[in-house]
């Protein structure tokens, strides 16, 4: 375990972007894709349709063989992408392509092993070079993230950390001192793609999240329809839709992406 710097980081591009967008919208929408699923060409079309439909920012997941935070839908997409030949290098190339083409921020979502194998500073430098604005690494808590945080700060990138319903107020405040960009609030404990109850209990939890951070908040894990997003208005800055978009593609094809996203926004 390494000692971390407790100084509050300065605002990065991502936080500023979110706050500016929130002046125009009651809540923002962030979506999630697994790069290479069902193919890189299909992913590009999915991204295009999402951006055209009004998505505000997007997670690009680098496939990993043991995605511990992900449920069966995203797990299956990770494995299919790896089986089809997705690599970290191909993901960097894809991320650069969409960052160059589309005028929204993109973040990486992946797991710590990939960063350690690539090299923390080299990974962050490459992110900066290709225009990716930040990262979410669920298995890398602040206590073990000194090298990661240093590399992200050096390259002016956002290191997004996670709150869960099990996180104490004290720990939330500690996490907040290290996070940049926004805080990702899990709607419940467990993995992605399961059923989530949008209730007064969740409202109380999200109020606790907002009280514990100086950053915008995003809510994911189980957000899948417009009613869920409507519930989150006033309780969070960003709604995150992940597994449901992958289900739509798996069940109805790539061209179902745009209509599905519009159904969430309109």
Keywords, separated by commas or semicolons:
266 residues, alpha/beta, TIM Barrel, eight-stranded parallel beta barrel, 12 helices, 47% helix, globular, disordered N terminus
Please provide a written account of the structure:
The relative contact order is 0.18. α2 (40-53) packs parallel to α12 (257-265) and α4 (88-101) runs parallel beside α6 (120-130). This protein has twelve helices and eight strands. The protein has a single domain (12-265), classed as TIM Barrel (Alpha-Beta Barrel), CATH 3.20.20. The protein is globular and about 45 Å long. 47% of the residues lie in helices and 14% in strands. It has an eight-stranded parallel barrel, surrounded by eight helices.
Summarize the structure.
With 266 residues, this protein is an alpha/beta fold. It is 47% helix and 14% strand. The protein has helices spanning 13-22, 40-53, 72-83, 88-101, 112-118, 120-130, 146-154, 169-178, 200-211, 226-232, 243-252, 257-265, and strands at residues 28-34, 57-61, 106-109, 134-136, 158-163, 183-186, 217-220, 238-241.
Topology:
Layout: H1 13-22, E1 28-34, H2 40-53, E2 57-61, H3 72-83, H4 88-101, E3 106-109, H5 112-118, H6 120-130, E4 134-136, H7 146-154, E5 158-163, H8 169-178, E6 183-186, H9 200-211, E7 217-220, H10 226-232, E8 238-241, H11 243-252, H12 257-265
Parallel strand pairs: 1-2, 1-8, 2-3, 3-4, 4-5, 5-6, 6-7, 7-8
Helix pairs in contact: 2-12, 4-6, 6-7
Function: The alpha subunit is responsible for the aldol cleavage of indoleglycerol phosphate to indole and glyceraldehyde 3-phosphate.
GO molecular function: tryptophan synthase activity
Family: Belongs to the TrpA family.
């Amino acid at each position: 375990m390494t000692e971390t710097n407790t100084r509050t980081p300065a605002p990065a591009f991502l936080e500023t972007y979110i706050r500016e967008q929130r002046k125009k919208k009651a809540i923002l929408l962030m979506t999630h894709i697994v790069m290479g699923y069902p193919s890189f060409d299909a992913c590009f079309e999915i991204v295009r349709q999402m951006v055209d439909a009004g998505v505000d920012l997007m997670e690009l997941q680098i496939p990993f063989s043991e995605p511990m935070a992900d449920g069966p839908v995203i797990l299956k997409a990770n494995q299919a992408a790896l089986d089809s030949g997705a690599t970290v290098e191909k993901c960097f190339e894809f991320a650069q392509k969409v960052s160059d083409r589309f005028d929204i921020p993109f973040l990486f979502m992946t797991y710590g092993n990939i960063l350690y194998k690539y090299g923390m500073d080299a990974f962050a430098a490459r992110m900066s070079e290709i225009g990716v604005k930040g990262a979410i690494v669920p298995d890398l808590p602040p206590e073990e993230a000194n090298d990661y945080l240093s590399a992200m700060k050096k390259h002016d990138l956002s290191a997004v950390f996670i709150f869960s319903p099990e996180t104490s107020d004290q720990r939330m405040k500690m996490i907040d001192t290290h996070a940049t960009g926004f805080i990702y609030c899990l709607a419940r404990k467990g993995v992605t793609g399961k059923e989530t109850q949008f209730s007064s209990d969740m409202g109380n939890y999200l109020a606790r999240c907002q009280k514990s951070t100086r950053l915008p908040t995003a809510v994911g894990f189980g957000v899948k329809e417009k009613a869920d997003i409507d519930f989150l208005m006033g309780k969070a800055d960003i709604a995150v839709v992940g597994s449901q978009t992958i289900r739509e593609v798996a069940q109805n094809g790539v061209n179902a992406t745009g209509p599905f996203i519009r159904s969430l926004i309109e």
